[in-house]
């Protein structure tokens, strides 16, 4: 199901079960991941394109998400001007043990450029000093005080989410 | 050996050729390839390399979809038929 909430920067493709029954799609063979497992194994294939292109791919991926062959997808609603990219980014999520199967689906749908990134790599980029967070701060023109608050919030959020490595990972608000 | 290179979203670098087929020596590494790409896109090597000679954190260098930082960085060996993809790090979600 394509979930398009205007208040979010992202548009998601998740199983209907996730919306109706809170089905947890961050799993491996039906088993939910702990925080530790999430950081070690969860990641995404990156796909780049204009909004119309990623939107079309999202529609094609929707049935695979419903069948749970692809756990979930997320893509930019619009370009992130702070990042000066000229394409929208789509993330096609899965456990690294199933990433080859998910890639086969993407390749069959015409995706050519292969780029796998672990979520831990992305999370590190959104921590203080990380390229994404610092670029976002710079792009927003934040003064020093505001920038420091943003950095502190990012650090606190990460610490809060991953406090216990053995707890089941419950997601990150986006 | 032939290596296919795709330089994605790198308009900030003034990339002239974003899709390249690079002929490399048999024992080529990522460092070798970056120097060869620089011949087509001057400034590429300087942008991709940090002060310690490693890959700049501003970019992600993939070989067949794998981030080379998770393999052997600049020393990662290339193989015939490898497909290389370089993106700005901020594009990584």
Shape of chain B: globular
Please state the CA-atom Rg of chain B, rounded to the nearest Å: 12 Å
Strand content of chain A: 15-25%
Helix tally of chain A equals 7
Mean pLDDT of chain A: 92
What's the rounded overall pLDDT mean of chain B? 89
Main β-sheet description of chain B? 5 strands, mixed
Q: Would you list the SSEs of chain B in sequence order as H and E?
A: EEHHEEE
One letter per element, helices H and strands E, the order of chain A comes to: EEHEEHEHEEHEHHH
How many strands in all of chain A? Answer: 8
Strand order of the largest sheet of chain B: 2-1-5-3-4
Low-confidence blocks of residues of chain B: none
Oligomer type: heterodimer
Describe this entry's structure for a reader.
Chain A is of the alpha+beta class. Chain A has seven helices and eight strands; from the N terminus they run ββαββαβαββαβααα. In chain A, the strands form two sheets. Chain A has a six-stranded antiparallel β-sheet. In chain A, strands 3-4 form a two-stranded antiparallel sheet. The radius of gyration of chain A is 16 Å and the shape is globular. The mean pLDDT of chain A is 92. Chain B is an alpha+beta fold and 93 residues long. Chain B has helices at 30-40, 44-48; strands at residues 2-7, 19-23, 59-63, 66-67, 83-88. A five-stranded mixed β-sheet of chain B has the order 2-1-5-3-4, covered by helices on one side. In chain B, a hairpin with a 2-residue loop joins strand 3 (59-63) and strand 4. The longest helix of chain B has 11 residues, at 30-40. Chain A binds chain B through residues 44-46, 48, 74, 83-87, 89, 91, 103, 113-118, 121-122, 125, 131-132, 135, and chain B through 6, 8-9, 11-12, 57-58, 60, 62, 64-67, 70, 83, 85, 87-93.
